[in-house]
Specification:
The complex is a heterodimer. By secondary structure, chain A is mostly helical. Helix content of chain A is 76%, strand content 0%. Chain A is built from nine helices and no strands. The radius of gyration of chain A is 18 Å and the shape is elongated. By secondary structure, chain B is mainly α. Chain B is elongated, with a radius of gyration of 39 Å. Chain B starts with 12 loop residues before the first helix and ends with a helix. At the A-B interface, helix 2, helix 3, helix 6, helix 7 and helix 9 of A face helix 1 and helix 2 of B.
Chain lengths: 180, 112
């Protein structure tokens, strides 16, 4: 069943239909939230809040438009909102994936280390670059959709993706040199 | 990773796969089940449910405020304070303009 049909049913108070949308898009939503909040529980809370908000607003969803960007915008906003509140709560917050760095080479395989280095490099990026590169390269969103989510012009999203990739590449090249 | 320019509209599949892997943990099924349950539970909640959850606290707060207001308002007033206008003729107190001379004269004669 297509997203639009499930959304229509969910708007008619069909919880099972909305549950299917959660199953279908939950993991992608989690990755976007994690790009903003790190791997901790805050990201899961943001996804949950986002889905709850989406279900309460599903009657206003325009069935002619794609569901996923609409949902992801709500989830990203929930994550950004939580991030802002977390910054107020803890002015020197360290993203979880930065806090897990420093493992020895004997603890994990090279590939696991590579991923950790990638997480660290991702955490160092400015927030909007992080969201843009994850949504574009990992989740397959178009520049226009990301622009809508972030509330910036499409050209700015292109710039975010470009700079994010360059920063990630620099960090990962350094990793390769270290391990070679 | 591919060396794209800012004007390239293609996603990088290698970087994309690595980013997905870096942001995915092994508890995917558990996470989905948890999210689904929480969303359905919260979604089934009506506005009245939310209000009824807040109502007892609201009632308590209102009762406390009413009690406080009653205590403050119920205090007996101290000695009545002297008002310089207390003995002035009514006409002086309420008249917006200059009092007429006869009113002042009568008031003085009557010792008010």
């Amino acid at each position: 069943m297509e997203d639009a049909e499930l959304a229509l049913r969910a708007a008619g108070d069909d919880g099972e239909a909305f549950g299917q949308l959660v199953d279908r898009h939950g993991l992608a939503a989690r990755r976007v939230a994690r790009a903003i909040l790190g791997l901790g529980e805050d990201a899961d809370d943001a996804v949950q809040n986002g889905f709850i908000a989406a279900w309460r607003a599903i009657g206003r969803f325009d069935q002619r438009r794609p569901f996923r960007p609409w949902l992801m915008r709500i989830v990203a906003n929930a994550a950004l909102d939580l991030h802002r509140r977390r910054k107020v709560r803890d002015a020197v917050a360290i993203p979880d994936y930065v806090a897990t760095s420093g493992v020895g080479p004997d603890r994990a395989t090279d590939h696991a280390l590579f991923r950790e280095r990638l997480q660290e490099a991702l955490a160092q990026l400015p927030e909007k670059q992080r969201i843009a590169v994850v949504m574009f390269d990992a989740e397959g969103y178009g520049h226009a959709e990301i622009a809508e989510v972030l509330g910036v012009p499409e050209g700015t999203v292109r710039s975010y993706v470009f700079h994010a990739r360059r920063a990630l590449r620099t960090a990962l090249d350094a990793f390769k040199e270290d391990t070679s | 990773m591919t060396d794209f320019t800012p004007f390239d509209g293609r996603p990088d599949p290698v970087l994309g796969a690595e980013l997905r892997a870096a942001l995915t943990t092994a508890d995917a099924e558990e996470f989905l089940a948890r999210t689904r349950a929480a969303v359905l539970e919260a979604g089934a909640e009506t506005a009245w449910d939310v209000l009824s959850r807040w109502a007892p606290r609201g009632m308590l707060a209102a009762a406390a405020a009413a009690a406080l207001a009653w205590v403050l308002a119920g205090q007996p007033a101290d000695e009545p304070t002297f008002s310089p206008l207390a003995s002035a003729p009514v006409q002086l107190e309420v008249s917006p303009g200059q009092p007429e001379a006869t009113v002042i004269t009568i008031a003085v004669l009557e010792g008010r």
